[in-house]
Amino acid sequence: MTVGRATIRDVARVAGVSDGTVSNTLNRPHLVNPETRDRVRQAMATVGYVPNAAARALRVGRTRTIGLVVLDFGNPFFAEVAAGAEQAAVEAGADIALFQTGLGERTREERLLHRLAERHLDGLIITPNNVEDPLLVAIEQRGTPVVVLAREVPGRRRSAVRCDDVLGGVLAARHLLDHGHRRLAFAGWRHDERYQGAARAAAEAGAVLTWIGTGGAGLADGLTAGAHLAGLDHAQRPTAVFCANDLIAAGVVQVATRIGWRIPDDLAVVGFDDTDLASAASAVELTSVGQPAAAMGAAAVRLIADRMNRSVHSVEDIVFEPQLVIRESTATTRSLIR
């Protein structure tokens, strides 16, 4: 029976491996086969071994901690990203530290990036307000690999994991056009690639796409966009709206149903992300352009882990393809029957 604090030697004895194998399981798990890793971790539990993370970080120059910076914890998309990232981090023997900035909150993001530059992170995954932010360059120059999430990086100057947002916008707009709509609206940010894709599809069809700007990306912004639509003259009002995410779409649906509009007969609505909100938490089940949030979070962590474990320095641009999921917010009674 071990007396006092359990050591690596105690773990090695119980697991039937060398001290070096235990050390590799803790610090370089990719070097140890999965069966041996499981045996070592079971031995750690048996003897009550608790790694001293601070001491290990000083010894190997690493904390095995990856920072994940998202815009909004309240957005179900980022919750799914975090879940996927966490699972991949566990597999890589790392931890995830979560941070939030907020859409358009430049000062808040700047303060956070200054703090993170001083921390001993082994990697940073971020959905930045500005992919060209010089602070990201400064963090990389200090030796911390950066992966941009859900944003395209012009010139591929750093690694990114994203969905093809332009294609997502095309899919949403073409779906509405196929249902006979010719007056469309986009609720979101004009520079958004989703808007660009929708604008392209509308232009090709000779249809009108009206931009409804939103200051943020939450439910309240959807309520504001819905109120704007409700205030338009019937002859000018769009018959369909494509929203930058499901939260905005849910807000639009709330306003529409409150004033007695039938969805989709009076207003068709498409969201983006295909979160649980689209299928279960909205007053009307939302048609939405889905992107694999958990897979994106996991892919970003694996890029960081490659840098941590094998000193991989190549820049990668991992692009997932969006999928349109059709539900009742765009399907007429006749199409639902079919």
In a few lines, what is going on in this structure?
With 338 residues, the protein is α/β, with parallel strands linked by helices. Helices cover 46% and strands 17% of the residues.
Characterise this structure.
It is a single chain. This protein has 338 residues and is α/β, with parallel strands linked by helices. The protein contains 14 helices and 12 strands. Helix 9 (193-204) links the parallel strand 6 (183-188) and strand 7 (208-213). Helix 1 (8-15) packs across helix 3 (34-47), helix 6 (106-117) packs parallel to helix 7 and helix 10 (219-230) packs across helix 11 (246-258). It is elongated, with a radius of gyration of 24 Å. The N and C termini lie far apart (70 Å).
CATH topology of the largest domain: Rossmann fold
Look at the structure and give the CATH class of the largest domain.
Alpha Beta
In spatial order, strands of the major sheet run: 2-1-3-4-5-11
**How much β-strand is present in the residues?**
15-25%
InterPro entries: HTH_LacI, LacI/GalR-like_sensor, Lambda_DNA-bd_dom_sf, Peripla_BP_I
Pfam families: LacI, Peripla_BP_3
GO molecular function: DNA-binding transcription factor activity; transcription cis-regulatory region binding
Organism: Actinoplanes derwentensis
Q: What is the topological layout?
A:
Blueprint: H1 8-15, H2 19-27, H3 34-47, H4 53-60, E1 65-70, H5 76-91, E2 95-100, H6 106-117, E3 123-126, H7 134-141, E4 146-149, E5 159-163, H8 165-178, E6 183-188, H9 193-204, E7 208-213, H10 219-230, E8 240-243, H11 246-258, E9 268-273, H12 276-281, E10 287-290, H13 293-310, E11 317-320, E12 323-325, H14 333-337
Parallel strand pairs: 1-2, 1-3, 3-4, 4-5, 5-11, 6-7, 6-8, 8-9, 9-10
Antiparallel strand pairs: 10-12
Helix pairs in contact: 1-2, 1-3, 5-13, 6-7, 8-9, 10-11
